């Protein structure tokens, strides 16, 4: 009986981890089929914009469906031509409008359940430009994803000035569906997901990609997934600290300093650099996780480590970028002879900063 119960618990736990927390992730469910440009509020189930309106000057994303009206029917829509990435529907929004300063469109959804504070999650979705878009001839960076406890409010079409959990640093030019995927640690019980450009026009890079004369950038979105990430997935590709091409979860390990230490214990103190801005980190020492999902503060976190003779590697893994990218932490350390040194380590979503310690017997 115990074996059967354990087996059931394992299956239930795996299902929980794999559960998609986004309702209607591919926009297949609808209350009404879209008929024209601006069809979104009251059309696609479980999704909303942030102002409840459907006409400019309000921010108005668009719902597209194979069974929609002429302006909103896939694959040839008012905003260009493409097929859905998954099944029969997509959503489209502007990240920049050349004819209206700082005009923004956002989509938002309430999650199935609020996220668990301290738990790691993976969010993925697909994004694409559309061919022959007569409405917008360009592309931008700054498409972002914001998780929040409350749904943001947009009075008309203004920029929502909040810090997203992820945003495209480079100009996105996907002429076919491109998957976006990133991991983060929930800092609180987030209940809403919102997508759009959270930066001003001046902070947004623009590039023309089509021959049309219009100025603006418009993206289609599809097939969202938000799932828990088990701790076992946060692994290094190699366990040897001096191995070449070392990675953590696909991020390249970047050695930022090397220090000599003497035999014995190695005491590490870690705290946030500069202004405390919500940096969340994990620390890996010689292939073992010695600190997980820790939000760095001004108060030092002290760890006592046992180094091995020769090469030792301490890796800082960033779960977010805080309010002031990149993720930075001050590492202060001393060996058994109390030789104290300090270094600021920087990590982001492509690199994990590391300190190498060379231990000698003297």
Helix coverage percent: under 10%
> CATH superfamily of the largest domain, called what?
Galactose-binding domain-like
Number of domains: 2
Q: Measured on Cα atoms, how large is the radius of gyration? A: 24 Å
Write up what this structure looks like:
The protein has 2 domains: 21-228, Jelly Rolls (Sandwich), CATH 2.60.120; 234-360, no CATH class. The chain is built from 1 helix and 24 strands. It has one helix at residues 2-18, and strands at 47-48, 62-65, 76-77, 80-81, 89-97, 107-110, 120-128, 138-140, 143-148, 166-167, 178-185, 192-197, 206-208, 216-228, 247-248, 251-262, 266-272, 280-285, 288-295, 301-305, 310-318, 327-334, 340-347, 351-360. The longest helix is centred in the first third of the chain and has 17 residues, at 2-18. The chain is elongated, with a radius of gyration of 24 Å.
Looking at this protein, list some descriptive labels:
single chain; 362 residues; 1 helix
Topology:
Layout: H1 2-18, E1 47-48, E2 62-65, E3 76-77, E4 80-81, E5 89-97, E6 107-110, E7 120-128, E8 138-140, E9 143-148, E10 166-167, E11 178-185, E12 192-197, E13 206-208, E14 216-228, E15 247-248, E16 251-262, E17 266-272, E18 280-285, E19 288-295, E20 301-305, E21 310-318, E22 327-334, E23 340-347, E24 351-360
Parallel strand pairs: 16-24
Antiparallel strand pairs: 1-6, 2-5, 3-4, 5-14, 6-12, 7-11, 7-14, 8-13, 9-10, 9-12, 15-16, 17-20, 17-22, 18-19, 18-21, 21-24, 22-23
